[in-house]
Specification:
The structure holds 3 protein chains of 3 kinds. By secondary structure, chain A is mainly α. Chain A has 20 helices and 3 strands. The longest helix of chain A is centred in the last third of the chain and has 30 residues, at 331-360. In chain C, strand 1 (25-34) and strand 2 form a beta hairpin. Classes of the chains: A mainly alpha, B mainly alpha, C alpha/beta. Chains in contact: A-B, A-C, B-C. The interface between A and B is large, with 84 and 85 residues.
């Protein structure tokens, strides 16, 4: 009864909302429609200029974003494996007040406030304070990590925005470029800025290669790392430093809202291609670099669109491709493995049923397979088949040359019969195994990795067979 | 600066937005999915943009619908990638919301050609211009944003009130709730959809920063103060109102105080919620740093006093004279600073007396230390029967245990040791006191 | 009423006549607390060399806690742990740790060989790369546990017993003298369990010490040659034939000690009154 009441109330509310539409959402007069002008595509001349890297500025910017993508893809592997993906998000948001305070500070000293290393230093410091606050909230209050991240992200960012509001009304200094830190703007990059990015990205790159071993073990098993005498805190701090470093470097290219994407998406995408850490490292860095360079190139062509969004979009497309076609755990390969496994089971069931039927009949002789036919009807009744799956099983077995299909029934081929003998024997042995060693463990073999099953199967079965003989 | 009607509207908008968010945010905190609020507030952007393209108006029913759909889609996609891609929850959330936000940004920049809808506005909103867009309601001129926000607040409160029971159980134990027949997924997606709607309602007036902050911070602040869900919700609403009001005030008055121009309200509201959180972290009576520090000090002080009593008692047992301060210091395991305070206090409470430079126990002090000593030696005996280790070990443990004054435990201990006369090292266990 | 046990002098005499540097693990008066709530009370233990030692006790008895406090993974409230007579810090390289299955991230992108090589990271040192000879040694360790055919397999694609063997190989690669294993037989079928025990017996017969948390009382006698009965405190330790008496088992498994339990809770609440 009550449920119906709720439902009625809800649907009533939903129905009413559109009728409120004209009252509430009438086109406000203050919103003046701007001039409509069409989106202009870059001319082929521009296109060529960018592609051929003719001007020095483009070259440097592309190199800078590429290196940034490379470095973030690299350190991102560790960040995601350490399950700290969202820490990157909180940390990048936490950099805003630092940037603005650095700006105000530099203006009050009498400069223009647009000195990039100074701004980035501010970002670095405030990001680190953010990390500290996250740790404090997590360790000294009853709140969990997610809340700690959320609090730092929103409060720091809110504070940054409030400070930004101050600078926009300040008489001294021109704060016009500051919001490019939020959404990223590669076009505003000076050559000196690009060099700075280049150098920092390089440092990050070298350090993460140098500490590859230590970071790996830290991400794999924190407890073990501690037990073996490494300082987990020190390693974490170093990793955090590199993460914050990359994030800050990427602020100008991607902007602080989306910079975390370059930390997360490339490694996640790479994981779909490989389960080897080194390869994952390589693939992730390459994906990051490709996103950086393509995104920046498009943004150079269409300067109106925010660079960060473009870089992340390229990254997202690469993710989608990896998700679908990844050779290790992409959706298609999973589907394929699953199907193959199902087929195998179907065929095994079919052959085993055929074997059991055949051996229960006296007319069946092993050396004359051709003259013995098993009716579909009998087969169908022998096991609780679904019609569809029986049909598939028959078709696939025929294709694999295990059976000969006739109108009324099925006939074993030579190889099909041998296979059915093997399957029957295995089945029998497995039953024995379960009887003798009724334990768990069997289920631990991942189904879709069916090759393994065979190795294990054959080894154990050999032993079992011997046991039975003796 | 004077308090104008504009200020009133700004604060009201802030309060309404904060309340709508804080209501829902409590459940995010308890579900340990606080970052979902951040994710959704980013990922509604393409929904807005698409709805805008379709209807080419800035605030419409379709926009709310688009946002709600995107909110649910974000949640579903996150779950899907988490499950099928074998990716950890945080990372899959990060993947989904950044990509969606990027798409939204590109779309919105396209849209910005035809209508004033720029990315900056999405972030900080334009609460200062709220009065430019009024509608007539009955006989009053009310800013449109206020009406929209009120409706959203109404919707959210209805949701929380009507489904309080369901929300509580699905938040507390999803699997148990499902086994009882509550549809946890449905509740979850409804919550996500409402969050998305709230984001849209808030974004053009107060900006999405407020949404992110108010979803998380008031709830987290309230969580530090109470263990009851209903109280937590009320407290979070209180903190939401407080941060909205104080936020606006400080936006107007605070920067000029330092010689800077005033700033936008939404950023300051988020900041103030953080300040309130910080204050509560320190002073919260139950889980605050200050109170736990205070409790620790009080307990420590009691332990110190009791230690002093038992040192004097032991010394009297040995030489029946009492103890000098130097003698006490010899056995004193805490910082010497504690000692002088404790002695003053004990003297004041007439538990010890000073004779020359020797301290002796008074009658009160004596009976108290006998109880302590009895407890200590009973513990030693008890431990030595239960634990296989050299008896010398138990002294330290018993030293800590003797400070437990729980009546129930004491009774059990007395019962267990009622026939023992000596502790394992052969010292006499004082008999139970008369009273 | 207390039954005052006579202080048995023999029980603790090895402090005198055995040189401390011969004892792989000596735990002295160890008390471990979580949030001031003691979970191990006054543990006093000597683990004999070259033996397969089991820590046995009910759920929540502090078995894993004991292992972790030996490894200094959790802070020790009071007491000391000595590894071959020296502090943990100085001799930690002698300890190989095989963690509980649940604590490992199985989807982590490493194969069996890489996992074993991790055991040598400490020895290789900061910033230096893994060389071919390290890999060869790791391969040798895999061979010793009979896992050489699977070296290139991602760890989640191994069965439970195989995973366990890879981690034993990692401890071998550390050239550990003492193997600490947290529930090595969890999620492993009976047959594999026996194979692992054979492997462990091989290891301990070469003079190495194995200390494992074990659950199954039925197999303790068969698998191990030294047993520690634990339930918040040590009930008894020694050869299984002497230790596994009915009286001891009743004391270990016969429910919680209400007084000790209450006292622990009261201690953790001391400053919240």
């Amino acid at each position: 009864m009550k449920k119906k009441l709720y439902f009625l109330l809800l649907s009533f509310a939903i129905l009413l909302l559109p009728s409120l539409n004209p009252l509430l959402f009438s086109e406000p007069s203050s919103l003046v429609l701007k001039h409509q002008h069409n989106f202009d595509w870059p001319s082929s001349e521009d296109f060529l200029r960018i592609i051929s890297l003719r001007d020095y500025n483009t070259r440097i910017v592309l190199l800078g974003t590429m290196l940034f993508g490379f470095a973030s893809g690299m350190i991102g592997v560790f960040v995601t494996l350490r399950k700290r993906a969202l820490v990157g998000d909180a940390v990048s948001h936490a950099s805003l007040p630092g940037v603005v305070i650095a700006f105000i500070f530099m203006v009050s000293l009498g400069g223009t406030g647009k000195f990039l290393p100074g701004l980035l230093a501010g970002a670095l410091i405030s990001s680190f304070i953010g990390v500290g606050v996250i740790l404090l909230v997590r360790n000294y209050t009853r709140l969990h990590e997610d809340a700690a991240l959320g609090i730092v992200l929103s409060v720091f960012f809110g504070f940054g925005v409030a400070l930004l509001g101050i600078t926009q009304k300040m008489k001294e200094g021109n704060s016009a470029g500051l919001d490019s830190f939020i959404y990223g703007k590669t076009a505003s990059m000076l050559i000196s800025d690009a060099w700075l990015i280049l150098v920092s990205a390089f440092v990050v790159l070298i350090l993460s290669v140098m500490f590859f071993k230590e970071f790996t073990i830290l991400c794999f098993d924190e407890e073990y790392t501690l037990a073996r005498g490494w300082s987990v805190f020190g390693l974490d701090l170093m990793m955090m430093f590199l993460t914050v470093g990359v994030t800050v470097v990427g602020l100008q290219a991607v902007g602080l809202i989306l910079v975390v994407a370059l930390l997360i998406i490339p490694p996640i995408s790479a994981r779909f291609w490989t389960s080897n850490l080194k390869k994952m490292f390589l693939i992730s860095s390459c994906l990051g670099a490709i996103s950086g360079i393509l995104g920046a190139a498009v943004s150079a062509l269409v300067p109106k669109l925010p660079a960060g969004a473009l870089i992340v979009l390229v990254c997202g497309i690469l993710f989608l491709v990896s998700l679908l076609f990844g050779s290790e755990s992409g959706m298609f390969i999973q589907l394929y493995r699953n199907l193959r496994f199902q087929y195998r089971i179907l065929i095994q069931n079919l052959l085993r049923s055929m074997y059991e039927i055949a051996n229960s009949k006296q007319s069946f002789k092993e050396d004359d397979l051709k003259s013995f036919m098993i009716d579909y009807e009998e087969l169908f009744n022998f096991r609780s088949w679904k019609k569809m799956s029986l049909m598939i099983a028959v078709e696939v077995s025929k294709f694999k040359n295990l059976v000969i299909k006739t109108k009324k029934g099925l006939i074993f081929t030579k190889s099909g019969y041998l296979e059915s003998v093997r399957i029957f024997r295995n089945h029998h042995l497995w039953e024995l195994y379960l009887l003798n060693y009724a334990g768990v463990g069997l289920g631990h073999v991942d189904h879709f990795v069916d090759d393994i099953e065979h190795i294990i199967e054959s080894k154990i079965l050999e032993e079992l067979g011997e046991e039975q003989r003796s | 600066m004077e308090w104008t009607v504009l200020d009133f509207w700004i604060v009201s908008a802030g309060i309404l937005a904060s309340l709508s968010c804080a209501l829902l945010g409590n459940f995010l905190i308890l579900k340990r999915m606080s970052m979902m609020g951040d994710a959704i507030s980013h990922s509604v952007l393409p929904g807005l943009a698409i709805a805008f393209f379709l209807t080419s108006s800035k605030a419409s029913f379709s926009m709310f619908l688009g946002a709600a759909v995107l909110g649910v889609v974000t949640s579903i996609l996150t779950q899907w990638i988490h499950k099928h891609g074998n990716v950890d929850q945080g990372a899959s959330m990060g993947v989904v919301f950044t990509i969606l936000f990027a798409i939204g940004l590109v779309l919105i920049v396209q849209a910005a050609d035809s209508v004033d809808l720029d990315p900056g506005c999405v972030l900080y909103g334009a609460v200062e211009y709220i009065a430019l867009d009024m509608i007539t309601f009955v006989d009053f001129e009310i800013p449109r944003a206020i009406v929209v926000l009120s409706l959203v607040f109404l919707l959210n409160s209805c949701f929380v009130l009507l489904f309080f029971k369901e929300l509580r159980i699905t938040t507390f134990d999803t699997q148990y709730a499902t086994s009882l027949g509550f549809n946890s997924d449905l509740m979850h997606y409804a919550l996500m959809g409402l969050i998305a709607i709230t984001v849209v309602a808030a974004f053009e007036s107060v900006g999405s920063i407020i949404v992110i902050a108010m979803l998380i911070v008031p709830g987290a602040t309230a969580y530090l103060l109470t263990d009851r869900l209903s109280l937590m919700i009320f407290l979070s609403m209180f903190f939401a109102i407080l941060s909205a009001v104080l936020g606006h005030f400080s936006a107007v008055y605070f920067p000029p105080f330092f010689g800077f121009p005033d700033t936008n309200t939404s950023g300051m509201m988020a900041t103030l919620s953080g300040v309130i959180f910080f204050v509560v972290v320190i002073v919260s009576p139950r889980y605050g740093l200050f109170s736990s520090l205070l409790n620790k000090m009080v307990t420590r002080f009691r332990v110190v006093q009791e230690d002093v009593l038992s040192i004097i008692f032991r010394s009297e047992e040995e030489n029946s004279l009492g103890a000098t301060k130097e003698h006490i210091l010899l056995y004193f395991i805490h910082h010497p600073l504690w000692l002088s305070i404790a002695m003053k206090f004990l003297e004041f409470n007439k538990k010890i007396n000073r004779r020359g430079n020797v301290y002796v126990l008074t009658a009160i002090g004596n009976s108290e230390s006998i109880t302590l000593m009895r407890s200590h030696r009973l513990w030693e005996s008890y431990l030595s029967t239960e634990i296989q280790a050299p008896h010398s070990h138990f002294h330290d443990t018993a030293d800590r245990l003797e400070h437990i004054h729980d009546a129930d435990i004491q009774e059990t201990l007395d019962l267990e040791g009622r026939d023992s006369e000596f502790d394992p090292s052969g010292k006499k266990i004082p008999p139970e006191s008369e009273d | 009423m207390f039954k005052l046990k006579k202080n048995n002098p023999e029980k603790f005499s090895f402090h005198m006549d055995e040189h401390p540097s011969d004892i792989p693990i000596a735990v002295h008066d160890l008390t471990v607390s979580y949030n001031r709530k003691p979970v191990l009370w006054d543990v006093d233990l000597n683990i004999p060399k070259g033996k397969l030692v089991a820590i046995v006790g009910p759920n929540g008895a502090g078995k894993s806690t004991l292992l972790k406090s030996i490894l200094h993974l959790i802070p020790i409230a009071s007491g000391a742990v000595k590894i071959y007579g020296r502090t943990f810090k100085k001799n930690k390289h002698l300890i190989g740790y095989v963690p509980q299955r649940e604590s490992v991230d199985w989807s982590f992108p490493v194969n069996a060989l890489d996992t074993v090589v991790m055991g040598m990271y400490r020895k290789i040192g900061w910033c230096l790369p893994v060389l071919r000879r390290h890999k060869e040694f790791a391969m040798e360790c895999l061979r010793r546990v009979g896992m050489e055919d699977f070296y290139n397999r991602q760890i989640s694609q191994l069965s439970g017993g195989q995973q366990q063997r890879v981690f034993i190989a990692r401890a071998l690669a550390e050239r550990a003298e003492i193997f600490l294993m947290d529930e090595p037989f969890a999620g492993v079928d009976a047959r594999t369990e026996r194979a692992i025990v054979t492997l462990l017996k091989e290891i301990s017969s070469s003079g190495k010490t194995v200390l494992a948390v074990h659950h199954d009382l039925n197999t303790v006698r068969e698998y191990f040659d030294h047993v520690i009965l634990l339930n918040l405190r040590i009930i008894d330790s020694g050869s299984p034939d002497f230790v596994l008496t009915e009286e001891n088992l009743r004391r270990t498994y016969g429910g919680r000690l209400t007084l000790l339990d209450k006292a622990a809770t009261a201690l953790s609440n001391l400053d919240r009154e």
